[in-house]
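Researcher: Please translate sequence to structure tokens.
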Amino acid sequence: MAAFTRILALVLLLPCLAWAAPVRIKDLATVDGVRGNDLLGYGLVIGLNGTGDSLRNTPYTEEMLGSLLERLGVNVTGESFRPKNVAAVMVTGTLPPFAHAGGQIDVTVSAIGDAKSLLGGTLIMTPLNAADGEVYAVAQGSIIAGGVSAEGEAASVVQGVPTSGHIPSGARVEREVDFDFSQMSSFRLALRSADFTTAARIEKAINDDLGDGVATLLDATTISIDSTSLGTVNPARLVGRIENISVEPESRARVVVDHRSGTIVMGEEVRISRVAVSQGNLTLRVRETPMVSQPNPFSPGETVVVPRTDAEITQEPGIGFAEVSGESSLSDVVAGLNALGVRPRELIDILKAVHAAGALHAEFIVN
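Model: Translation complete:
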């Protein structure tokens, strides 16, 4: 219990340490519109060691392989071929902002048929489309699969996910997104977590550094930046200067609970009103121990099973009524909860009950 108390206190105090120092704007916000674009393609992986799709169950793999061979001048019309070293896959990737033609991006390859493994396979030329239907990149290369599988006549073993793999720098950018950032005289910053106080502090910090009127607060997540008052300025250099300005963000009072692992994380602003807590466990045990009764040898009668049930109810002493006083600091709240002397999952139940009673002044999130 003492070890858990120390670990719990450390976990609860981590947010305090994290928010004690100012944070750069680049870690709190992004430039609105500067984002990546998702890409998707459908292709074939070849060169597998007998772990590909069974073409009887995946006819689309056979159709695509036949079309590919036809384009390469190989006539397979009417032919029956059942290779086991080919698999149909979906290829996904992200076109980063400001990507230029000729650049390379990473892609992920995932089997969509009944292939057993993509280990050792090679993805052949696969166009990658964006949401507008245009081809922005072409993927090809050897797959790095992180899993492995093996099987015999009566057993099989699989470690990791052998039906999914990765190709570093496996796609080459063929089309650029039409976006000229150098011609923008104004842009917006978008906060990753909405908060009016943090947004107002960012506005003030930018205006203090660059001059009044450069930054304008629009809402809890958006700050507009207008560079016209600064004269002729390179927007990229301006963003580089703004994102390194430090501000002290404001965090919302929040308690996050993971009931599966028993983890509890509290924010610095969490407060608990004065409340009394009583906690104990009631355990009911019912055991069946039937007995067999049978007559003596060569005597009349028959064997019967006589039921025998033992029922027991036990109640742990619990903590009785313990008072958690409303204090002004997180360390006092932690000390009050630890003073109850309960186990992690019981502490989670107590926090849920305190929240239901209206004494926990924080957002309560259960995962």
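Researcher: Any highlights?
Model: The chain has three domains: 37-148+158-173, 186-247, 252-278+322-366.
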